[in-house]
Amino acid sequence: MLHRRIHSLAASFLCFATLATLAKEEDEPRVDFTVMTMRVSGLPAKFDPCGTSNDKKTRVAMHIGKIMTEHKYGVVNVQEDFDTHATLYKYDQHPFRTENAGELESNSGLNTLSHYSWADYSTISWDSCHAQSETDIDCHAKKGFTVMRVRVNKGVYIDMINLDTNTGTGFYDYITRRSNIEQVVNFINTHSVGNAVIVFGNTNSLYTRAQDNIRLFTTATNLSDAWVQAIGGKAPTPGSDESITQCEVTDKIFYRGSRAIDLESTGLFYDTTRFQSPEGNALTKHKPVRAKFRYAFKDGWMQSDLYGGPYGTRFNDLDSLPASPRLASIHLRGGNRLDGLTLSLVTGETFTHGGTGGTRYSLTLQPNEHVHTIELCWGERNGHTRNFYAKMTTNQKRTVQAGKSTRDCETWVVPEGYDVVGAYGRDGDEMDQLGFIYAQREDEKKE
């Protein structure tokens, strides 16, 4: 529940008059993490419509970096991070940060600054762009979206997406921007199946504009809009009067949990008053938008950490598992490395990942037998980190193993009362990245 909900009309007057936050923060309980999206306006001079001097841009980036550090934002997505990137990173102290892509032609202007590590990270360019003029950056920079699988806690991974869509309100701008949104939606539906997701960035879209397709995030990917939730749960209708929805901005935060992870937005805030210069001037042209989140594993489900490298194709068995799944057999394939994995359930479902190389090693579980410990080892081959070895030991001391052990290994105990029932990670001809899905055993649910 939000500490305080603000209805649309009240919120519009609040934002119009004061650019204040959408919710109070006094006496709120601690939440698990925060995310923020901010357009830092670090455009190169040629593309800056305001003609801001380099000295001023540098001072602004310095203040922004200091304020980000002061308020300890969990994960920050920034857009238009071009000319002042070095200054921003100099004064910000988040321990995990994406690397700048370099020259404008190869740079999306998207970066992430985080207190949490991530298992993988990708930058995807837009399939289409439209520039209104030579000073429009939309087709000069390599704009698009980024996606990273962020580890916010043991076994808790969230796909976090940063984006900066095509600008403008012309006929071809709308066509291009709709294509941008569709591209992100298609990515989520292909590569984030079974995963919790947070999308936060500059959509350049409004619910009040009938030409925008921003609703696709909620209708096609089962995401919720943290702003819509904060104003009472109902988005403005297309074509409605923008003057009564002054609190809506194009910088948005969408989210969803998963079958295993309960993800809840507990507040949305416009941090305009935080990001001011010593003279009291706003440091950003767009409102910095922050959301608070609380998470927990859902009853009956847990996940392990991920091990290996960010290569191959993503997979996740979670959404394909039946109710109350129970493991029947384990098949590992390996030679010099871990080539493949197959998990079969007593109800007949079989989940196979990786390739067909190596030798197959199998273990059929007996009644009341379940996986107790797991060992994975990983190493590097052809410049790519991947899993080299897996060993699974049951509560009856029986084992199945494949591949070759390395110096980098992890052994852990499956949570008490749970059993391995599926896997998630990345694969190709071998097991690039691997984690396990646990379900609570039926005998434990009854106790």
From TrEMBL:
GO terms under biological process: phosphatidylinositol dephosphorylation
Q: Which residues form the Jacalin-type lectin domain?
A: 301-440
- What InterPro entries does the record tag this protein with? Endo/exonu/phosph_ase_sf, IPPc, Jacalin-like_lectin_dom, Jacalin-like_lectin_dom_sf
Q: What Gene3D superfamilies does its record include?
A: Endonuclease/exonuclease/phosphatase, Jacalin-like lectin domain
Q: Which UniProt keywords apply?
A: Signal
Q: Which residues form the signal peptide?
A: 1-23
Q: Which GO terms describe its molecular function?
A: phosphatase activity
UniProt cross-references to Pfam families, sorted A to Z: Exo_endo_phos2, Jacalin
Q: Which residues form a coiled coil?
A: none
Under what name is this protein listed?
Answer: Jacalin-type lectin domain-containing protein
